Here is the input.
Amino acid sequence: MRRDKARIFDEYLAAAARTGDRDAFDRLAQRWQPRLLRHAYRLSGDSDAARDIVQDAWADIVKGLPSLTDANVFPAWAYRIVTRRAADSIRKAQQRRKTTSAFAAEPAPEAPSAAIFENAVNAGPLAAALAALPPDQRAAIGLFYQEEFSVAEIAAALKVPAGTIKTRLMHARRKLRAALEERKSNV
Here is the structure.
């Protein structure tokens, strides 16, 4: 595993925050907030839900940080907390839908906002292809390529076996390749 300056700095911040250094925790939160938000969005597909998920995850991180024995595992540990919170959020949303459907027909899924469509159009065909992936594959691809996590780190963050991550990456790559080739042939 390659250890660059940013990773080493994050380890330092996590170790210092673990001992109660408030400034180190604030800097750690500033550095990791955008990454955790992207991960929560990949899992939930809803920007408002992603913000709520990450806010709840930070509460868990604050509580659990003193017991984190190895600052090196902070990234995977934080992503695992966000993944667990996202799963809880999705489960609660599904339960609400079941309750609602007992009284009336299930409402149509929330239509993506115009801003999401604008961003997909402006970002290009790759962003549109990524958005079309199932959440589990989108999360694996995002962590692998955008966050530069290893397969083992992704497995720890998503709490699934490494073989499952390899399979998700393989299927996601195939779908992305097919979508981009289809677009290329239509142009």
Remarks:
- DSSP finds nine helices and no strands in the chain.
- The chain has two domains: 1-106, 114-187.
